[in-house]
Structure formats: C-alpha cells, structure tokens
Amino acid sequence: MLDAMFFNRLRAAEAPSARRFEVRSPIDGHVVDTVADSGAAEASAALDRASAAFRVWRMRTAYERSGILKAWHALILEHEPLLAELMTVEMGKPVTESAGEVRYGAAFVEWYAEEAKRIAGETMQSQFPDKRLHAIRQPSGVVFAITPWNFPIAMVTRKIAPALAAGCVVIVKPAEQSPLSALALAALWREAGGPPDAFQVLTALDPKPLSGVLLDDFRVRVLTFTGSTQVGVELYARSARTMKRLALELGGHAPFLVFADADLDAAVREVMACKFRNGGQTCVSTNRIYVQESIATAFLERLTAQVAALRVGNPLDPSTQVGPLVDQAGVAKVTAHMRDAVVHGATVLTGGDLRSGLYYQPTVVTGIRPDMRMMREETFGPVAPVLTFATEDDALRMANGSPYGLAAYLWTSDLRRAYRVSEGLEFGIVGINDGVPSTAQAPFGGVKMSGIGREGGHWGIDEFLDIKYISVGLT
Ligand code: ADP
C-alpha cells in the first residue's frame, strides 16, 4: 500500500532542496505527494557528489557492480505491486500495464547486471615484433539522464542500468509529471547496497535551470535523453560546447501497414495493442494505420467495434484498459488534432471527444489527408487514424514520407513481402506481424529526426564506454 512509510522511503532518496512542488494525479487531480524542486544550486552540488562517486564506483570490479545491480533487480521485482500503483497514481497508466512496465524496466537491470561482466577489449596484430597493441573500454564518467513521464520506470532503468554497469555514475532528472517512480528506484538502489551518489535523482518543476548547469559543465560526459524532438534538438546543440556523447530517443510517427494477405483478426488485435496501450502515449504507438484498399471495410468494421468496446476509467481498476491522459496539455493536443482533422473533412467512426476530466474517448477516424496535423505530429492519445493504400510501393512511400524514423509495423503472410518491406522502411525498429516488439535484449532507437544511439541489448552499454588504445613498446 502507498502509505506514509513508503513515501518516507522515497524522501530518503531526494536531493536536499529548500523548495518543493506538488505531484498531482491525473486520475482525479488529487495531490499525491510533494517533491524537491531542484535548481541550479542543487545541480552543482549533485555534480560535485557524482564526480567524487565516479572515482570510487569505476574502481569497483565489474563483478561487484553486477552484484549490486542484481540485488537492485530483485528488490524492484519484490516491489512490483507498490511500484505499479505508484506509477498509475502519478501518471494514469492502467495498473495492469504499470505492473508490466515494472517487469519490463527490471529486465534492463537484469540484462546489464549480466552485461557488466562482458565488457571486453581487443588485441590487434602489430607489424613490429616488439610492439603490442590493445584497445580497452572504460566508463565515460558522469552521465546526465533526462527521462519522460510515459514510462516512468523503464525509461530510467533502460538508461541508467547500462551506465551503472559500465562504471559510470548518473544524475537523473525525471519528468515533472512522474518524479516519484524515479525516486522509488533510487530508494531501492540504496537499499540494494548501491552507493547513493552513484545514482542521484534531481526532481524539478522547471527542467531548465538545473539542466543548464549540467549541460554546460565539462564533467558531465554523456547526455542520455528521451523526449520530444524539439527539446532533443536544443539539447544536442547545447551539448556541442562541451563535446558530450549523446543518446537521443526522440519522437516517432509510426506507420502500421496492413496488407490484403494479412490475418485480419491478428492484425486488428496487434493494432489495438500498439495503439491503445498507455492510452496511445507511447513514442512507438502507431500514428498512421495504412490498410490495403480491398480489406479496408472489413478491417475498419472490426477495429471500430473493438475500440468502441474498450473500457475507459479509473486506471487503478484492473479491468480498465484506457485511463486518463497525463495532463491538460495532453488533452489540449489530442483535442486540437481531432478538431483540425474534422474541420478538414475527416470522419469519426467512434469516440472523437473528451469524456470528462482528462479521459479521452478511444477514437477511430478516417478520411485523413497528409496535410492534417495528426499526420505530421505525434498525437500522443487514443486516436487511431486509418488510411488506405493501393500497392506495396504506395504503402512504403507513404510510410517513409515522414521526418521521423522510430518504429514501423507491417502485417502480411507473404514472407518475401515481409523482408522487402521491412528492409525498405526507414525506421530503427520494425515489427513484422508484431505490434509490441520492444524488449530488453534488443536495440531500441530511431533514425532521422527520431534520434541517435541505441538503448537495450549489448548496444545500450556502448553509449557509456570510451575506447582507449594502449600501445606497448617492448624494446
Ligand atoms: P514530452 O512532450 O514527452 O513532455 P519533453 O521533451 O517536453 O517531452 O520532456 C521530456 C523530458 O525533458 C522531461 O523530463 C522534461 O522535463 C525535460 N525537458 C523539457 N524541456 C527541457 C529543456 N529545455 N531542458 C532540459 N530538459 C527538458
């Protein structure tokens, strides 16, 4: 249960700050708790502590670091119901999904606990008999991680588990909507025996003052960010001054292509999972469903029936499938996209309006044109725009006709088409007959305006390791 004792445990993981701000639940607007409102001074102090902690943490053996990560992993899983409830209360995700996210987030900790022991170097051949050439990999230093609210646990662990495994230390600035989940992770890290200053959380209502200090300080060597492309571009530019390494996981605009040879029921099922989990507030959620003309009517009938039957309500109720949007800004964006579509001739097949509070009705909309806002920007809500295509070439051209390149999906029973189309898609992640491909051991990340770098799998730890070449003369 989320009682005072639990919130006190979170408080132990907070950075000291004179100011605090309220965290409100999107369920009904009640104040869940207050957290430290960190600014520039708190960031400087945290960075001093992190720099000192790095000197110690990097010297621990990979086996020691792995052991602490394993203990942290066990504690996260042990606290699954509490963490799930906390996440749901602070950002509105249906509680069954929150429990799934706790397990998904924990999987990164487990994976990188194992990966810590596999950081290896190379030995090269030399053309001289009296020289030996080596390349070793060492932790880069202090990492600054900025995370979003839509996956308050998994976006933190996906970034910091590899960083900590590599021997780096991290300062995390979680989104202002969901700071409590990050504090819970930090509290459990300490309880698992992790050095407190190796993983610090700075919560803030306004991200800019504290981020400015960390972005401009040379001691921060890596910036890892998940959020909007607009903010990512700003951070990329500012990080150039201190030549930081960057991993940027930015916006997406995922197409979902359904070919006439698809298993229709399975395709509808996966479109539903892909679009409506987390109320559509996922950067890999489909924003554009392209269906081949000959099956469009049948597809729309099935999709509309299933969307209309989705259970919207209190996300703490385990039977709820769609909860509230995260905040008023989220509602404003979804509403503006729908208004723009309808004004320009779109047809609403189900939903299309706000129900009450932050609860938006799951929606299917057709008659979409490429110049509509929802075709150019992420809607980040439970709205499924369905378009049609004639040929495979048309489908590929439309899918690639976006500056974003995070995730794309296709549904077909033709193996040759599956390979052709997946290889032609300009995206970092492709799901063939799979609407939910993300998993800890696979690379996650985008191309084009969706970012740079990869998280997950053996790729995810590379972001936090520098290569050092050591040449040994033996004369
Ligand atoms: P979203 O639309 O998902 O809220 P944002 O990119 O605005 O995406 O936010 C993602 C994260 O980036 C949050 O933690 C937010 O506080 C932080 N953020 C937003 N603007 C800035 C900024 N100018 N500098 C540093 N962090 C920022």
Spans where pLDDT lies below 50 across 5 or more residues: none
| DSSP summary: helix tally | 16
Helix content: 40-55%
Number of domains: 2
- What composes the largest sheet? 7 strands, mixed
Task: Put the structure in a nutshell.
This protein has helices at residues 4-11, 40-57, 62-78, 80-91, 95-115, 154-166, 179-191, 207-216, 229-239, 264-276, 296-308, 328-343, 373-376, 392-400, 415-424, 459-462, and strands spanning 20-24, 31-36, 122-124, 131-139, 142-146, 169-173, 199-201, 220-226, 245-249, 254-258, 286-292, 347-350, 354-356, 359-360, 363-366, 383-389, 404-405, 407-411, 429-432, 447-448, 451-452, 465-473. With 475 residues, it is α/β, with parallel strands linked by helices.
Provide key terms for this protein.
475 residues; alpha/beta; Aldehyde Dehydrogenase, Chain A, domain 1; Aldehyde Dehydrogenase, Chain A, domain 2; 2 domains; seven-stranded mixed beta sheet; six-stranded mixed beta sheet; binds adenosine-5'-diphosphate
Explained architecture:
The structure is a single chain. This protein is of the alpha/beta class and about 475 residues long. It has 2 domains: about 270 residues, 3-Layer(aba) Sandwich (Aldehyde Dehydrogenase, Chain A, domain 1), CATH 3.40.605.10; about 190 residues, Aldehyde Dehydrogenase, Chain A, domain 2, CATH 3.40.309. Helix content is about 40%, strand content about 20%. It is built from 16 helices and 22 strands. The strands form 6 sheets. The chain has a 7-stranded mixed beta sheet, with helices on both faces. It has a 6-stranded mixed beta sheet with strand order 7-6-5-8-9-21, sandwiched between helices. α3 packs antiparallel against α6. About 50% of the residues are buried. The mean pLDDT is about 95.
